[in-house]
Amino acid sequence: MHESSHDHLTGLPSRTRFVEQLELALAGWRQRPQDRFAILFMDVDGIREVNETRGRFVGDALLQEIAEATGSCVRAGDLLARVAGDEFAILMRGPTSDGEAVTVAELVQRALSGGFRIRGEVVPVSVSIGIAFPERRDHSALDLLRNAATAMYRAKSAGRGRHAMFASAPSRKSLDMGQLEAELRMAVERDTIGQHYQPIFELPGRRVIGFEALARWQHQDRGLLDPREFIPLAEETGLIAGLDAAALRRACAFAASLPIPADGAAPFVAANISNRLLGESLLVESVTSALEATGLDPERLVLEIREGTVMDDGAAANLRHLRVLGVRVCIDDFGAGHASLSYLHKLPVDAIKIDRSFTRQLLNGSDHMNALQAIADLAARLGITVIAEGVETQAQLQQMEWLGLTAVQGFLFSPPVAAGIAATLLAAGDGQVPVAASTT
Ligand code: C2E
Ligand code: MG
Ligand code: MG
């Protein structure tokens, strides 16, 4: 086996070898343009998180498993290579249709979907895949790889575990992610990523008790972007640390600026924290500096962390530390995936937020109702607040009230709004609910 032509860890051909073979395929295609080959560019979602939370050994073993499972999905004669740390590429030689390329992408995603058992633990995994075909005679192998990588970034920014086809005529959506990354970097550096605030209403009184801060990016060409369009990119590129630190400061400043209602119950602000930061000591620094800079009472700050987060010791220690300061912790998107009631016993948690998908399914079956009842009962016993997210209808609201939940949030009451409007909702939110049901 050639040192430079193969990768030690997985035994797969290396990037050098892949590019050589791609050049050959391109040369063949220039002769017979009707025989299009395809390349699939595949990036492991969140490998850094795996390395950081479970250790390098597990990360490496995971890459080996991925290599093997992916290898079983490619057609005979096709070439699978490891082209960078967590990047793989597949060359589908000979005449290949769009449909065949998509089928292989789907096969790979399905083959990986169960995760892998490593050192006795199941490690979940997903990959984002970009697909590209040769288009121009003057394109080099690297041009083609770049196209496939661009499609891969687009897939990733749409959410993990997806695939996308490169589209040469740049539509509004298929922009160059390299450019988007540069723009995001600048927006974070200049602190121009803004926030909207969605009110949270207490039950049964239906009074505004707090707000969730949600990132909004006013992009010069693309308009107001919602977080699903840029948070995954921020997480992949490491920009998330700066983004969330700024979001924390902004959220605290917003809460500190709110008038305190006559009854004296000061509204809280909930800030979303990326899983990436949970184990970092930087998290504690970001929170304390945001509180100091704005003078906000720590008890008025809630940190929303995503359910399913791998809770390593560092993360748990951070959360405990922050709770000693008075900051509260809420598990977001509860019930969306790895919901486990045992979480509630183990984690230092003050509140849980029931995921929108769960809220939506409540009417469809009593299973969900029973599950939510069990969650609500356990939470009540543990002194944990339960908030329902994504409440859109009166029927859903009534169910939440019937279940005895603590609070609700959703379009029935109000979408996320700009800071100025949020402050007026606070003044008006005294039982006159639903406030915004008729405003859209
Ligand atoms: P999330 O924390 O679960 O936030 C709730 C999302 O549901 C928001 O989407 C909100 O606009 C939407 N929503 C609220 N009520 C309803 C409803 O009744 N129906 C429907 N269909 N949707 C509703 P948004 O603002 O797009 O945020 C998406 C996600 O991005 C958030 O989900 C959160 O996980 C993340 N995020 C937002 N801001 C930040 C941030 O500053 N930092 C980090 N790390 N993540 C953020
Ligand atoms: Mg949230
Ligand atoms: Mg949520």
Count of alpha/pi helices: 15
Shape estimate: elongated
The share of residues in extended strands comes to: 15-25%
- What is the total tally of β strands? 16
Q: What's the oligomerization state?
A: single chain
The hetero compounds bound to this protein are: ligand C2E, magnesium ion
Strands ordered across the widest β-sheet: 8-9-11-12-13-14-15-16
- What does the largest sheet look like? 8 strands, mixed, barrel
Describe the 3D structure.
The chain has 15 helices and 16 strands. By secondary structure, it is of the alpha/beta class. The chain is elongated and about 80 Å long. β15, α14 (about 395-405) and β16 (about 405-410) form a beta-alpha-beta unit. The chain has helices spanning about 15-30, 45-55, 55-70, 100-110, 140-155, 175-190, 230-235, 240-255, 280-295, 315-325, 340-345, 355-360, 365-380, 395-405, 420-430, and strands spanning about 40-45, 80-85, 85-90, 115-120, 120-125, 125-130, 165, 195-200, 210-220, 225, 270, 300-305, 330-335, 350-355, 385-390, 405-410. One magnesium ion binds near residues 304 and 332. One magnesium ion binds near residues 353 and 389.
Outline of the structure:
It contains 15 helices and 16 strands. The protein has 440 residues and is an alpha/beta fold. The N and C termini lie far apart (65 Å).
